[in-house]
Fold this sequence. Notes:
It is built from nine helices and five strands; from the N terminus they run βααβααβααβαβαα. By secondary structure, it is α/β, with parallel strands linked by helices. The protein has a five-stranded parallel beta sheet with strand order 2-1-3-4-5, with helices on both faces. It is globular and about 50 Å long.
Amino acid sequence: MNPTRQTILFQGDSITDGNRDRKEDPNHILGHGYAFIIASKLGFEMARNQPHFINRGISGNRVSDLYARWDDDAISLKPDLISILIGVNDVWRIMAGCSGDRFERAYRHLLAETKEMLPSAGLALCEPFILKVGVTEEKWDEWRKRIDDYGRIVRRLAEEYTAVFVPLQEAFDKASSGKDAAYWIWDGVHPTAVGHELIAREWLSIVQNSPLAIR
Length: 215
């Protein structure tokens, strides 16, 4: 075992899940989204140290779902870096009138326990995002207000818990300006292949130029 090998954990909902395989096939266990793109690039560049990439995103998850499974799917894995992208399902449930808003409370509990149990682990908190197409069109103003509120919460939590904040909404806004939003996020929530590439590039530009950079 390489003593310098780092373990990088990707956590979140369907955007992170990327239809990943739940078995051990190395071609599919990282899914087919931004986590795969990041892992392939950094895994190649850092092949000497063989970084270990894990994907534990689960489709449909809200932050409270992450918290419920955090011991098994984060703490027990003892990662050196945890990347979290969560929030759009929290908004989706509220928009459907199905639940109250526990986003900040659950997120804060999750981060506090992580700092307690894994004090040396780095944290990269990704901003949730949407575009005006598909499911978000009908009540766009409310969708956007809520997702922007969550983005501000995530930024604030990143500051409080000494995490790296990865902004994404502005990048999607700029990429889709004057163009077909569905090219980037096909239903307003789930990115296309190029949308995942955008996430990966933003993540790499921020994380790899921070103290959390994978070496």
